[in-house]
Write the structure tokens for this entry.
Amino acid sequence: MKRIFFYSVLALAMGLSSCSKDSDINAENPNQFSGADAKLIMPGATMANILVQEGELARLAGIFSGYFTGNDRQYISYQQYAITAGDFDNAWATLYAEGLSQCRIVREKAKASNDLALYGVASITEANLLLTASGLWGDVPCTEACTDGITTPKYDDMNSVHNYCIDLLTEVLPYVSGKSSYSAGYAGGHDWGQVASTLIARAKLRQGDYAGAAAAAANGVAEGKDLAADHSQYAPGAWNLYYDFLDWNRGGYMSCDGAYIVSVIDGHSNAKTDESGRRAAYFYDGNFAYSALDPNFYDGVFNPNANYTLVGYVENQMILAECAMRGGDAATALTCLNNVRAYNAAMYGGTFDAYTASDFASPTDLATELATEKYISMYGHIEGFTDVRRMKNVQGVPANVGSSIPARFLFPQSEVNTNKDNVPMDQLDAFLPLTLFK
């Protein structure tokens, strides 16, 4: 079975070297470890964030939200919601030990050296990680996490974690603009200030602060400014993580055969919409397929060189649309929806003619279209699973077994074993809704 070492190979692809010389490092005793420059630590935190957003957590979230079907080995169990606490040990370690801890080291060092741009990028990455963690587990370690002298950090409640992230992102807005030199591992013409604003909007949307979310999203990611994981180099360890899983390492484990999203896209075409282009980009049934219908790892959205959007224009527009609709401004909601449809036409081909108010018999019909479009647009992303739970499954995702889909991920077994005094032991049920999504 083929395996890769994501960190080492991708680090080399980015031009990093473990053999670079620095006359000031360990000058007195080369055998004694000393701290690294913050600029050299940041790429590791970036890689951890990409692994968290694009890796195993996204695949499991995709199965639970009807984007994928488990087709082989343990993924058949995941399809049946037969998950265990131990299934989340590795991803939790990546998020905290390899991601959050490194962000906090970088922030401390960058602030001490008055490198506010680096401080800002590390803070945005930290917030991205914590919002993902809290969106999947609810109450999670935050204020005491990755702190010297604290081996059993407390769990902060979900709303407090979101407020922490909002404050962190708001603090650095004056320090971040443009792409900056601290974008190794990322692709796209992203603007860090816009990325931070969209993440604030994401957090406020989860809290039900629709006016606040709209205000943040007004300064969010613009068209052509997506923050994306860079997979432009064709090499093991540098290519799209979905491709790596779907074809290179675990071919046939996960498919789209019978996945709910297929029926959603197939039923979405109408007089103004032809979904054939987006359908072809999402799904694959060609000569190299492992099932009757695979996620398109061959020539579609998960091909080896397909960059993976982490924080993007489409999500930002759909946040604006939902907030406007909830505030009674159907005209603005329709404008934002049509912006996404124009994006779809340019990205996938097919037909996405602009809707008019007369295309919807009632505000409810427009609200349903907004939820459907965002569900389709977030294919393969953790936020798709977040939306399904946050919106009480208005998307209509059917349960694979039983009567409901999972509402949360399980706290890792490693936490239950080593931090049991702080793990919320009353929240170990995968079908118990998260606090903000009740």
